[in-house]
Design goal:
single chain, 154 residues
Length: 154
């Protein structure tokens, strides 16, 4: 690929190794928003993130190597973390619209979105270290299942 062609796809070289994860599509977030109430919201978040992770797993041939590259390069890692923060803010808005507006619900939405993002990062981390290379969905579903169980005992 020539330099000119490369920069048609990526603004910088660093952009080439950033993951489109989470890469929730606007229509996926809209579907989540239109379902009202907290009923089954956690299950909907599991499905949203696991499906997104599968998409990334299938589209990036060398995903484990990219994850290791990001861990070794603080600048790349910070850009990826910035992407997570941006997506978490969008997810917070979606969750708040689903559970209702208000100061208390905004805080609840932030906590739920943060827990979902943490579960997603944990699932990604577990998958990246899985020598058996089991499907990424399994790791995401396991991480999400641990969140309610973890807080139930507190």
């Amino acid at each position: 690929m020539s330099t000119r062609t490369f920069f048609n796809y990526f603004e910088t070289k660093a952009d080439a190794v950033l993951l489109d994860l989470p890469g929730f599509r606007d229509e996926e977030l809209a579907r989540l928003t239109h379902r009202r109430g907290a009923d089954k919201m956690w299950a909907d978040l599991v499905e949203l993130t696991a499906t997104d992770a599968e998409r990334v797993e299938q589209s990036i041939v060398d995903l484990p190597r990219l994850l290791q590259l990001q861990k070794r390069n603080p600048g790349l890692l910070m850009r990826q973390v910035g992407r997570f923060i941006t997506v978490e803010a969008k997810l917070t808005d979606v969750i708040e619209s689903r559970i209702g507006k208000g100061p208390t619900n905004r805080t609840r939405a932030k906590l739920i979105a943060g827990a979902a993002m943490l579960a997603g990062r944990t699932g990604l981390h577990r998958w990246g270290h899985d020598e058996q290379r089991r499907p990424i969905r399994l790791h995401f579903e396991t991480a999400f299942a641990l969140v309610p169980a973890t807080f139930a005992g507190l």
